[in-house]
Amino acid sequence: MRLALLTDLHANREALTACLEHAGQQGADQYAFLGDLVGYGGDPAWVVDTVMAYVARGAVAVQGNHDYTIASVARPKMHPETLATIEWTRSQMSPAHVEFLGQLPLTRQLDGMLFVHASAEDPIQWEYVKKPEQAERSLRATASKVVFSGHVHAPALYRRTADGRMGTHQPQSGTRIVLDPEHQYLAIPGAVGQPRDGNNAACYAMYDDATRELSYFRVPYDHGAAARRVIGVGLPMIFAMRLVEGI
Q1: pLDDT single digits (tens) 215-227
Q2: What is the rounded distance in angstroms from the CA atom of residue 180 to the CA atom of residue 145?
Q3: Angle CA(130)–CA(21)–CA(223) in degrees, nearest 5?
Q4: pLDDT confidence of residue 74
Q5: Exposed e or buried b per residue across 86-125, where buried means at least 16 C-beta atoms within 10 angstroms of its C-beta
Q6: The CATH number of the domain where 239 resides is what?
Q7: Is the distance from CB of 190 to CB of 155 less than 8 angstroms?
Q8: DSSP category for residue 7
Q9: At residue 35, does pLDDT exceed 80?
Q10: What value does the CA radius of gyration of the chain take, rounded to a whole number of Å?
Q11: DSSP secondary structure of 119-180
Q12: What is the residue range of 27's domain?
């Protein structure tokens, strides 16, 4: 199985379209969406409809913090710009969209793989896994050999050896990494819809469970159109600028 891993879509129609087309060209035969389908971007209904269609065909999907917030009745504690986007996104959602986001699980397991938006240690706390010690806690929380997660908007790969030593790897686009079956890995594909590592190209990853090869990809897309959409629907300018600048 060649599994395409997409996270932090953030209502970015142009980026998601480009990544799905690229994944199809790479031979993907299954898909996993690692949360934050909505938030920041200007096409939340289209993105949720697209993911719903993939899930209906067997794709994996888990809940991100923005998805959780849309489905929650509580008013979240967020920056004013983010809160304004959440309220606008809610106004774009149908009851079916809200129900879908609210019923997404925090984690899914499949064939020795764990899918989670943030840390597997305590998914509902939405911890940002940015350091080896945070990655270690996430890996220690599961017996799965491979954990796929998002939330941090930048590609990363962590390894925990059989004797507990932690290592990191800086993934490069298009490079295949063979995962050692004796080790445990935490793979973060990077954001489809709002990269924040200084590169505005969309991110996703592909995992072949037969060969244990993991590949990261950067996919250029029409970020200008996505930014204009953000501005056109009246969302804060900062979210348009992030798409252009990749920060």
Answers
A1: 999 999 999 999 9
A2: 10
A3: 60
A4: 62
A5: beebeebbeeebbebbeebebbbeeeebbbbbbbbbebee
A6: 3.60.21.10
A7: yes
A8: B
A9: yes
A10: 17
A11: -SSSGGG-----SHHHHHHHHHT---SEEE--SSSS-EEEEE-TTS-EEEE---BT-EEEPP
A12: 2-245
| Total domains, the chain | 1
Residue 194 buriedness (CB in 10 A; 0-12 / 13-18 / 19+): buried
Closest CA to 70 of 98, 96, 51, 92: 98
> Which residue has tokens 């953030």?
10
**132 contacts: CB under 8 Å, gap ≥ 6:** 158, 166, 167, 168
Sequence-ordered list of residues with C-beta below 8 angstroms from that of 71, at least 6 positions apart, any chain: 98, 99, 101, 102
Would you give the distance in Å from CA 148 to the centre of its chain?
A: 9
Beta carbons within 8 Å of 148's beta carbon, 6+ residues apart: 5, 7, 32, 34, 113, 114, 115, 116, 187, 188, 189, 205, 207
Q: Looking at the DSSP assignment, which residues form a beta bridge with residue 146?
A: 113, 185
Helix (H/G/I), strand (E/B), else coil: 4: strand
Q: State residue 237's pLDDT score.
A: 94
pLDDT of 174-219, one tens digit each? 989 999 999 999 999 999 999 999 999 999 999 999 999 999 999 9
Closest CA relative to residue 15, chosen from 36, 41, 35: 41
Residue 193, burial from CB neighbour count under 10 angstroms (0-12, 13-18, 19+): buried
Burial code (b: 16+ CB inside 10 Å, e: under 16) for 13-51 equals bbbbbbbbebbeeeebebbbbbbbbbbbbbbbebbbebb
pLDDT digits (tens, 9 = 90+) for 94-149: 999 999 999 999 999 999 999 999 999 999 999 999 999 999 999 999 999 999 99
Residue 82 token pair? 């983010």
